[in-house]
Amino acid sequence: MQNHSNEEGGMPHIAVNAQYIKDFSFENPGAPGSLASMDKSPQIDLALDLNIQKLPEEDYYEVEISISAKALSNQKTLFVVDLKYAGVFNLINIPEEQIQMLLAVHCPSIIFPYARKIIADATQDGGFQPLMIDPVDFGVLYSKKMMQDGVLYDNEKKH
């Protein structure tokens, strides 16, 4: 990595100023019947989304991970969990061309383990096996999005 410097001449740095739950819900619509032992693992429908917002303060951004999970067994909903978990990041001395990638890859990677634990704890506290979401490679998601948007490479040919 090249050493970039701007007017202040400082080292590039990302500071996590806050992490928090913005919105959270857990539904257990079939309890207590849904808590009986199941003969097979439930089907899990999982969705993950990322929302990045520039804050009024200079070089501050909110990065929000939205996770929705629904467990189904025999066409019945066992549980539904929705979480919006966010962090406020201060990007210090970061070159302009790196900001978007850092916000979409590095910042969500910092806060994802906390969101993952909240989901696992909630499902376990709801009477089920903890839902352990596989680690997410935000770099791969970012690359796919850039390729879909056609911005990853200026000379990229559309297929």
TrEMBL record:
<dbReference type="InterPro" id="IPR035958">
    <property type="entry name" value="SecB-like_sf"/>
</dbReference>
<keyword id="KW-0653">Protein transport</keyword>
<comment type="function">
    <text>One of the proteins required for the normal export of preproteins out of the cell cytoplasm. It is a molecular chaperone that binds to a subset of precursor proteins, maintaining them in a translocation-competent state. It also specifically binds to its receptor SecA.</text>
</comment>
<keyword id="KW-0143">Chaperone</keyword>
<keyword id="KW-0963">Cytoplasm</keyword>
<dbReference type="InterPro" id="IPR003708">
    <property type="entry name" value="SecB"/>
</dbReference>
<dbReference type="Pfam" id="PF02556">
    <property type="entry name" value="SecB"/>
</dbReference>
<comment type="similarity">
    <text>Belongs to the SecB family.</text>
</comment>
<comment type="subunit">
    <text>Homotetramer, a dimer of dimers. One homotetramer interacts with 1 SecA dimer.</text>
</comment>
<protein>
    <recommendedName>
        <fullName>Protein-export protein SecB</fullName>
    </recommendedName>
</protein>
<keyword id="KW-0813">Transport</keyword>
<keyword id="KW-0811">Translocation</keyword>
